[in-house]
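ARCHIVE CARD
SHELF: 3
SLOT: left
DATA:
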Amino acid sequence: MDVLDKKIIYELDLNARAPVTRIAKKLRSSKETVNFRINKLMEQEYIKEFYTIFNAAKMAYKFYKLSMVFVDTTPDIEKKLISYVKESKNCLQLRICDGAHDLDFIIAVKELKDFKQFLFGIKNNFGKYFSTKDMHIIARTHKFGNHFLHNGAGTRRSFDNTDIGHYRADETDTAIMKALATNGRLKLVELAKMIKIESGVVKYRMKKLEQTGIIFAYSAMPNFDKLGLEFIEIMINMKSHSSIPNVIQFFYQTNKVIFIFEVLGRYDLCIELHVENKIVLRQILNNFKEKFGKEYNYYDVANVYENYVISWSPY
């Protein structure tokens, strides 16, 4: 993987639907070279997938982040619990961790009764196998560019998960979101053929979903293992919410962060870092403590060793 490969992944993360011609022009390369490189990066699994980020709050969905610590489990029981959560229609993301917790996942529901039903299902089936669970409401999502690959133009986008809308997605909208959720680069003609709807209608609906903010971004998911990067979650309890913007800016400037979630619960921030090794992580944490030592109460760290980006679509 050379510099051009890294720049291509960076550009695809900014907009996974960007035409090859546009990327080639921006990187001062040929269309043929860029197209060949993208296919090669996919074949060699440096890019795991192209995914679409949806702001489901616009459709009245609420986001919850749950973390659990296992107790008295076996590998078989853990596998069954993970499968139970992963196969739930409410689950957007799931991570297997070492450190502060063992299991971490995000779910989206419209009604509190749906959240209650989900929790009761886990507790009734697996309650004796986890000792503690932390539950948080996700209040705001921040998405950053892959600056650990290429220090391109600063990119920082966010949406408010508490700004609840009431957009009513019909069957066509739902079909489009399902198809784009884990294939954000799917060609319009192929998408139309897949969902059996005229391409002009699909194009119009996609534009509408983008304009309403339901489609937030089309991104590329790098294979962090192949890039030699460790996936770290840092959960921080702040003394005051007024310090949060400065903490977010601090981690953004490390060029190691892709997502930061502002949450309501035991913690106030969940930082997702991708670092080369523990030494780099320790230096970042030392710098954080030196700069914000009087502004936070405590933090916890978890190492993510298995990451399932199931889908940002609630359907």
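SLOT: right
DATA:
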Amino acid sequence: MICVSHQRVRLLHLAVWLVAALRLTSAHAADIVVSAAASLTQAFTGIAHVYEAQHAGTRVSLNFGASDMLLKQIEQGAPVDVFASADEATMDRAAASGRIDSTSRRDIAGNVLVLIVPKAHALPMTLAELAGPGFTHIAVGNPDTVPAGRYARQALVAANLWDSLQPKLVQTQNVRQALDYVARGEAEAGFVYATDAAIAAKAVAIALRVPTATPVRYPAAAIGDCASKPAACDFVRFLTSPQSRATLARYGFEPIIAP
């Protein structure tokens, strides 16, 4: 298996330093530092602009990456106010370690795992076709750190393919890297979210919607407590406002339907 993670520890320490530097060099009284899953990049950039326009003097600083790596940055002391992950399990760990205000936690959007191929590549009709000779490199997020990789592993295990496909799997540091590999033709297939495939529609095609045992949901919460970080909790509430929901929908995210 090809692994793109030898420098992960150094990159993690660098990322923590960069988040801290961002906070120190640009802090105003109402700055909000948000660490969010890479797949939320475009949507959260738009939401942050709207929030800033409605809250004069407030600046929203955004930090994107694999959910597990973002949580590790927080655990190592990165000055983050809001955390949004691409799965419930990562947020559950943040809650269990007392990192978040659990009263602020809410699911803000859903997504769908898809199998993509380069635009000119023949579309597989089933996951089983990935075992064929037409697929020698399959991009997938590292399941130890990337929620999309965990969802993909679930699906491949259920299809009895996880073990047999190991020699073909190219593990990536986040879901956007998996998208890039397929878009550049460096992998014949990859597992990403439907929203990722949409932003690269000229370069990739969706072959399959991949069923997952666990629904793909994005929880968000304030780091710390709302009493000491009211702006952070206000931003989390804003993520479920009609304006934010419209932005998320525009980028292909699915609404969360309350039971």
